[in-house]
């Protein structure tokens, strides 16, 4: 069942290791088959070195296990909520990568200080508010996903142009057109988070990059007039 | 004598290297056989590359060498005191890992700023006071262990839920159900120590995570209602 | 066509990886054949692991593709402008290396705090002003190169003695007598950028190295009276 | 000539790479044969990957080349001065390692904040004053060595107990009973320098470790009453 997607999700999970984004089992990646309405996700608490593609778990959009011998990631309900609310994404990644998590713990949006950021993420990376005690007690992981989607609506942020978010006191979620791109964005975010912190410490009171420069870099890589890469 | 335990302790010591927690010989791990009242520990000042399981030293709960051609770690009396005072632990690790040691040198408890911390360590990581000149002169290593245990009593901290401590101007000790888990906690602590410092620098005056969130994450991994991992 | 130069440029691009100066495809190196008035540059957005020397693109000094199946780097017009305005350079490198980029995002020149800097870069590393909206809209990459050259003229900085620049909110460009030396300077700059930040944080209000010491180190490595290395 | 010593010095130079203390050719190690009054040092500006033991250069205590096809390190006169003034040392190492160099650029002594420092270096690591223009112009490298030795005399620091120094705006020199120990101390210093900076940033206004604790750790590793390691 969904063997191709399992392989893709497995490989995306292994990329987390290659990009140095996870310690132990602290990360998970999923990918969705939109036609079937099912997604594939890493099992909970199993070490990366012991995983095979066939160990990936298949769940439905409510997060129920449909197939697989392992329980899915404890963050499955967050992934499910994101798939329901962000209909054009194909993959989701969650890590505790050092710099992005430090910004999440600090409770701050990451300003766009340069083109590395603007090339992949439009505008600041939002940090959502803390969950209420009720939201934590009743359905923590699901509410995490809903809060992210609500925050994007509230702030009028496009989820395709800004494929990253920080969960307060927790860590980052990123997404993309598939599992691999979600991980790619996790790696971009980690680098951007590190450089944003360093540049603030080098020049306290530093301003974000101008909107003109942000637009220039974002749109030379994205959209109909993009000219980065091999698209001709 | 205790060959299985020696192998386990040897492997846990080698994990210190793999997790990048030691420089040269600056770390040691032990594991205990509670029935026999003996524990196994790394020899003092021998390089990791030259060690074999059979080189591990067996000592009693007063820290006396019972078997082994090498003198045990110079910190043996600290391990012994921890085993006497914390009856449910099965392994102890000591390192000079960079970030945890920097907090120890700074003399500060590590606040719980996020879920990476709360997943494994309940509440802040305590930093014990400096030893008095008398405590240093008379039985330094033993007094280090006693001070840790006294501090946990005094502050009413549960040693199973908070398996880590910072010794002022020295470095961290961690423990667990066995030698391997003690090292795992040393790796968690190092990551947590790094992210706590970074998040304070990103947002000076930052508050710890809410008690609700800390409880949620700790108890989704620990205790009867845990649902992280493959426990069903 | 220009097979030797393609090989040299390919190898210089791969050095970016070896020196840990690039993430994904975020960097590019070129080398020029001054007699033919053509230069060779990495293609745009192709992963390093998939490149071969024959994939390098040949362009003229206006940045037009002359040969090669791939479109050249999106920063080609910047390289071209630098080759036109700095007639004695033979190679150019651009990266988003973490520390140099953080200084660029911070919008500050890197002061010369020590001999590591003075050995290779004479005086501070200039950070050029932000481009105007018009400069960004009309010919962004070309204007980036022109701005660099204008800044060097304006400040009366010799481009051979100071082979590095920071583009505001973007990242560093470096150059040298050939592609390999351009990359070497990119690695020097990254180290220098890191140590300059650290030393400011260790001692806020720290002064640059004395001009005497800067001159001593620069001239023991460069010019007729140099005595570093194997030149006799 | 001095083949054993050349091998030892070669291997010590290669340890600089293994311990991640050098970039490119920015470091050099020497070892002395006190009976012959000759020392062996790395050649100037030759890459580590191209060196063999037979490439090491033999010089006398004035720094004159006695044997070897390469010119000796440009810092040879500093090594020579240290050997003349510190008669019990057997090896000297110089690096531009990131954290120690950043303290040197910051112009500050490194306070002893913990036992990692106290285990190997007694008291603070001194940072010597800047050389005068005259000292720079007339015999820069020799004067660097003389200034170090003068500073140790002036401050009444024992060079055996404190085997490390920072040269203002330049970088560290370390020494030991032989070339290998000099490099070992360079690695200790780098770790100590990093943790001293981090602990100051975690707790601005932090005090050094108590003299009692410093003495305890230094003397449990050094001198007649040492009990660290396998000495019985």
UniProtKB/TrEMBL annotation, chains A, B, C, D:
State the family named in the UniProt similarity comment for this chain: Belongs to the aldolase class II family. AraD/FucA subfamily.
One Pfam family, please name it: Aldolase_II
What this protein catalyses is: L-ribulose 5-phosphate = D-xylulose 5-phosphate
Question: SUPFAM superfamilies under this entry?
Answer: AraD/HMP-PK domain-like
Q: Which UniProt keywords apply?
A: Metal-binding, Zinc
> Looking at its record, which EC class is this enzyme?
isomerase
Q: Report the transmembrane regions from the record.
A: none
Q: Which cofactor does it need?
A: Zn(2+)
- Enzyme Commission designation: 5.1.3.4
Top-level lineage group = Bacteria
Supply the Gene3D superfamilies for this chain: Class II aldolase/adducin N-terminal domain (3.40.225.10)
What are the Class II aldolase/adducin N-terminal domain coordinates in residue numbering?
7-197
Q: What is the lineage of its organism?
A: Bacteria, Bacillati, Bacillota, Clostridia, Lachnospirales
The protein's name in its UniProt record: L-ribulose-5-phosphate 4-epimerase
Instruction: Output the InterPro entries linked to this UniProt entry.
Output: Aldolase_class_II_sugar_metab, Aldolase_II/adducin_N, Aldolase_II/adducin_N_sf
Q: Which PANTHER family does the record associate with it? A: FUCULOSE PHOSPHATE ALDOLASE, L-RIBULOSE-5-PHOSPHATE 4-EPIMERASE SGBE
């Amino acid at each position: 069942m969904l063997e191709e997607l399992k392989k893709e999700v497995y490989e995306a999970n292994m990329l987390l290791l290659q990009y140095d984004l996870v310690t132990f089992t602290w990360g998970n990646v999923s990918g969705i088959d939109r036609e079937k309405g099912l997604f594939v996700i890493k099992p909970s608490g199993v070490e990366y070195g012991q995983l095979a593609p066939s160990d990936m778990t298949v769940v439905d959009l409510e997060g129920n296990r449909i197939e697989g011998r392992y329980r899915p990631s404890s963050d499955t309900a967050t992934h499910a909520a994101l798939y329901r609310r962000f209909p054009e994404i194909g993959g989701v990644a969650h890590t505790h990568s050092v710099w992005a998590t430090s910004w999440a713990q600090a409770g701050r949006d990451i300003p766009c200080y340069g083109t590395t950021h603007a090339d992949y993420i439009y505008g600041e990376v939002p940090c959502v508010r803390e969950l209420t005690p009720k939201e934590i007690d009743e359905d923590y992981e699901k509410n995490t996903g809903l809060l992210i989607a609500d925050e994007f609506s509230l702030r009028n942020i496009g989820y395709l142009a800004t494929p990253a978010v920080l969960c307060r006191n927790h860590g980052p979620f990123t997404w993309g057109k598939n599992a691999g791109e979600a991980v790619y964005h996790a790696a971009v975010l980690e680098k951007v988070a590190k450089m944003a912190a360093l540049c603030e410490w080098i020049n306290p009171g530093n301003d974000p990059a101008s909107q003109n420069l942000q637009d220039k870099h974002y749109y030379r890589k994205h959209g109909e007039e993009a000219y980065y890469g091999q698209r001709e």
